[in-house]
Amino acid sequence: MPMVFLDRLPVPSLRAYTSISIAILSCSIYYAAQIVKDPGWRNNHPNSLVAAVGNATDNNASAIVDSRTLGVHMRELFACMVQEPGCIWTLINMAYCVLILVGKSIQKLVFGELRVSERQHLKDKFWNFVFYKFIFVFGVLNVQYMDEVVLWCAWFTALGFLSLLSQLCKDRFEYLSFSPTTPGWSHVRLLGLLTAILALSSFMLLMCVAAGFFFVSFNTFAFMAAECILLGVRTIHVMLRYAIHLYDTRGAGNTSPRSWDKRGPLAYYTELTSELTILAVDFLHHVHMLLWSNIFLSMASLVICMQLRYLFHEIQRRITKHRNYLAVLSHMEQNYPMASQEELAENSDNCAICWEKMETARKLPCGHLFHNSCLQSWLEQDTSCPTCRLALSMQANHRENAPEIPSESPTPARRNDNHFFHFDGSRYVSWLPSFSVEVTHNRIRGDISALAHTNSQLDAMARQVQQLFPYYPRNVILEDLRGTRSIEITIENILDSRLLPPHHVIEEPEAEPATTTQTTTAHILPIPLVQDTLDPRLDIPAADSGEEPSNLGGRFSKSSMERERILQRRKEHMLLTARRKYFERHPHHNESDTSLDVSSPVNLNNVTPRISLSHN
Amino acid sequence: MAGSALRRLMAEYKQLTLNPPEGIIAGPINEENFFEWEALITGPEGTCFEGGVFPAKLIFPPDYPLSPPKMQFTCEMFHPNIYADGRVCISILHAPGDDPMGYESSAERWSPVQSVEKILLSVVSMLAEPNDESGANVDAAKMWREDRLEFERIAQKLVKKTLGIPI
Ligand SMILES: [Zn+2]
Ligand SMILES: [Zn+2]
Fold this sequence. Notes:
Domain UBC core (chain B): 4-164
Order of helices and strands of chain A: HHHHHHHHHHHHHEEHEEHHHHHHHHHH
Protein name (chain B): Ubiquitin-conjugating enzyme E2 G2
Strand content of chain B: 5-15%
Structural class of chain B: alpha+beta
Strand order of the largest sheet of chain A: 1-2
Shape of chain B: globular
Bound molecules: zinc ion
Strand order of the largest sheet of chain B: 1-2-3-4
Helix content of chain A: 55-70%
Largest interface: A-B, 81 and 70 residues
Family (chain B): Belongs to the ubiquitin-conjugating enzyme family.
Radius of gyration of chain B: 16 Å
Structural class of chain A: mainly alpha
CATH class of chain B: Alpha Beta
Keywords (chain B): ATP-binding, Nucleotide-binding, Transferase, Ubl conjugation pathway
Number of helices of chain B: 4
Shape of chain A: extended
Distance between the termini of chain B: 47 Å
Oligomer: heterodimer
Active site (chain B): 89
Number of domains of chain B: 1
Distance between the termini of chain A: 31 Å
């Protein structure tokens, strides 16, 4: 982007810019005042403004004379400045200056210091906006006259300002959602700003409608309205996500039972609707631009086509993801019953995915229970039981048909692999759009995907085959699949006994529950490492920690400050204990000059900051 | 998304604080970002890493526990399964979909029932018994196989370093 270059231009500080702007403005006001004083000017400009003011004063006889004449004077001044080309630029400059100041104070008020990533994001978004609007004004609309350009600039300035604020709110919200201890006040401020943006964007939409009725063509109206709608929907999207997040984290840390199952689909559908609305409006907006800028091979249409292509892929990806969601949902409803109350009572554990209590749950064939929404989000990306790894076939009902490869995962790298006939138009002529057609036939799908199998897909295929032939060892199936790359052919191989039948049944590690990790690690630590010895000679300097070491482990404070402090102390304590133990084990160290280090706080300080510093 | 991840992380933090496994401490460094933790791992007894206190950081994704966290030692490490930059290569940290080495069975890989505690216990067992098939650090793997004494000498040096004891 050439915009990066612009970014490096020396920009004066805000203070300098403001003072320069004010100075220029006062100069031009002075200049205008001089002109207005000249009696010749008034005769040359018997404009309607002055006449109208005169009219108003006649009607309003009781008005204070001073302020009236001052008002008239101001109006004249303004009328003069609008007509002088030099003055009008200083006025515009001043408007921008005020806008920047407003933005700065909003930032101070709501956001405080911006984080590095937010600033970077903002800058990118700004130049992106400028670039696309430049293309729009000069490439699509082909604006010829200066005053039109000025009007469009004003419009896009307002729009861009609100968009940037909205973007900033989104970034900040995402950051705040990483912390459980954000004070309520920052949420209120952010939500307030979002509401204000929403109100302003609706106001701008109303202005569009008004302008559409009275002044401008339908096309212009559609262009303007699309932008307002986009801004509005984006803001609403952030607000909805915010609301859901606040609902989610309400009382994080306590063990209050929650109604997860009602929340899940609601949150999902709000997300889906907003995302699709944004994409659809944006897509239509760009199609409109393309049709309007009737010079099809210009730079502008190229840029718009690229944008269109991107939007199209996004919509496609979202729809594929949604289809996966629906497939998983219906699969779950058909195959996994809700657990009965007795089963829930019998299973006293929490949900293994979210670690929260289960009021309702779905039951997998292996007998494991999970929340409906937790299970749903897991099955969207994997097809096995989280606890015991039992492979769950997504096509359990009609397994005799070619078992489908569970590669519905929405990862972008894989999304075009097998489900679509994909025509990438830009490979031939860069402005040609790309399009994709879904191939629904199961057999063809298997063949098309043959080249795209990664190891994990092989693994998944092997899992499918193994469901049909459970006593065949996994590695034999995998080996065959590597050659055939097709479930059907491997199944045929097995049926025709072209594959070696297993002489002895090999127990697959897969069949074992995942607890193996625990059992293997448990015996690694036979002796407790941290033991509080009663030997006073080896005791750690307690004055430094101020608390009994036993207190450090057994408490989970409600305040985040205290939690952080306790964690820090526990770490220090662990390090000191480890050092003491080390000297116990290596007595020669103890006798040498380093023995002092154990109790020396200076040395402790040398060690602990290194640990925490390494994180920045 | 981040909301449920936050609740789960908070629950794990609470559990790790109230019932800490021997020789392991873990928690968010700064609660303004609950998705970045620091863990201290004590080298397992009876191994060449015995006695060391190894700091590592854990970065959690917004959709945790559906996706695994990333783990990276922040001290100098020399181990067959730890990359030069400190990243840890064990199967429990790999999502079921990806398999960089192509040999792991999915039974050992990440699933939402795993937890920070299980990861750290796996790392402890990895420190005790390196898996020299995975070539995260080829030099270390080679030395582990061929020159165990030298490997142990280097490990002891690292232990002293983490404890802040002059060598
Ligand atoms: Zn759950
Ligand atoms: Zn299960």
